[in-house]
From TrEMBL:
SMART domains: PKS_ER (SM00829). The keyword Nucleus does not apply. Residues 14-327 form the Enoyl reductase (ER) domain. Its EC number is 1.1.1.1. It comes from Castellaniella defragrans (Alcaligenes defragrans). InterPro entries: ADH-like_C, ADH-like_N, ER, GroES-like_sf, NAD(P)-bd_dom_sf, Zinc-ADH_QOR/CCCR. This is Alcohol dehydrogenase. Keywords: NADP, Oxidoreductase. The keyword Lipid biosynthesis does not apply. GO terms for molecular function: alcohol dehydrogenase (NAD+) activity. PANTHER family: QUINONE OXIDOREDUCTASE. Pfam families: ADH_N, ADH_zinc_N.
Amino acid sequence: MARNMKAAVMRQHGGPEALTVEEVARPVPGAGEVLVKVAACSLSRLDIFIRDGMPGRVIPMPHVGGCDVAGWIEEIGPEVSGVEIGAPVLIDPFWNGEMLGEAYWGGFSEYVAVSAQGLLPLPQAARFVEYSCLPTAYGTAYRMLHTRGRLRAGESLVVVGASGGVGVACVQLGARAGAHVIACTSSEDKAARLRTIGADECVVAPDGQFGKQVWNLTGKQGADVVVDFTGSATWTQSLRSVKHGGRLLCCGATTGFEAHTDLRYLWTREMDIRGSDGWKTEDLRELLGIMAGHEFDPVIHAVFPLSRIQDAMRELEGRTCFGKIVVVPDDVQAA
């Protein structure tokens, strides 16, 4: 059995070219760990932040990124029970207070060693690509809308930045919950696609000035729930879009952490601002049950072989990306 593997290795921060596919030593599972054969690893904005170099976070080099992994158990380390070799699993990438692909080598590789406590059994092994999309995008969206946001059927929901991974997930899950979904995006092409996955109405605002259109679409009342993970570029517009007694939900800030807040909106509209931090394992279990019932399918923009990881990164950062991008090891791709 070969003890090496292919992995997309980063030796310094930079653009997509910072990742090069090399042959490296295959990890050995330690106590309480298993070795997972990677079948699919979806990309997220966190992968870009790690690659670029996040302020205040030192990533030891060399490093292998990739947070969201689905595959099957290849080896079982000592002090592990209750799992079987060959079992299909989804990895919950957050354990011991740290993130797979950030604090530990991740899924841009053929194999990854992870805590056995972070495994979730998969009901359908043939859908690895779809299942790999769940944690960072759909897990975050589910927790924000349901666990934290308490979204109810019949409520109006505005999704800011609706065409990315988390945004698409919010549109799908919001529609599934029976909300009236208003999706904000940057182009008519994306708006057309958003309507096919559950958006009732779309606001096309490439300049990010969507507030007035949302105000008019809601009868000049505002929306029950607004989700904003874009941050500084859209925060003021999001505040203006919340109705009296509504909720503004935030799970991130991709355009910057410092945002101007006109405090008058808080008291005059008696709104709640709620933070939502990623997901919990129970959120992923709920999503697995929903997927098993065929209530939704993750939206896949493109699937790339691991050997084209640089192209996958460029596609994620491009203006045409809609939904999730997934990387599959070349040996799995060829199987």
